[in-house]
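Entry:
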Amino acid sequence: MTDAELSDLVKSCLYTVAPDIEGESIDPEKSFRALFEIDSMDFLNFVIGLHKATGVEILERDYPNLQTLSGAVAFLRQRLP
């Protein structure tokens, strides 16, 4: 997958747990929690959505890597074949 495709996938998973933010600008370096005030359950559902969409095992220690768009894309790029 290209970085653009990974970015779209991450956004899609994010919009699933927070549909009211769809269409808003996402700064790739800012935390999703800071940008959109999503809570810990929304973040966990986002992580579960990424796992379901990609099959990539995501451990709790990986969560800090998934807090920004650029971080999530980089994480998935490393983990996907």
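Residues 3-79 form a domain with the Non-ribosomal Peptide Synthetase Peptidyl Carrier Protein; Chain A fold (CATH 1.10.1200.10).
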